[in-house]
Fold:
Amino acid sequence: MKVILFFWQLPQHLIGCVLYLWYKFFGGFTFVEKFKYETVYTALSMRGGISLGQFIFISPRINTVDRDHERGHSVDSRIFGPLYLFVIGIPSILWAMFAGPFTNYYKFYTERRADKHMGIVR
Structure:
């Protein structure tokens, strides 16, 4: 099953592999947590969090709720497969970059979905 999922999520896994190598050689990991379908890497130089298939990279400053939020994005990665980056990933990154300070970040559809998958109520 994991092999099928790897190929189903190939675009995000390729980016995740590159980020993994980058953080491994230049950023360092302080903690690695394995789950059934994803591995969470706490990277020293990470400012927030990003979910790319089975790879999740988070800041050491992120709490468990926000870690689980990133795990919720990985659920969407399994659902959308090769479309994930276009349907969820890119809109989520753009929302994180351009949402104003008076905007409820978690009301955007990509963030609501991630929270819903993990049962997070904000």
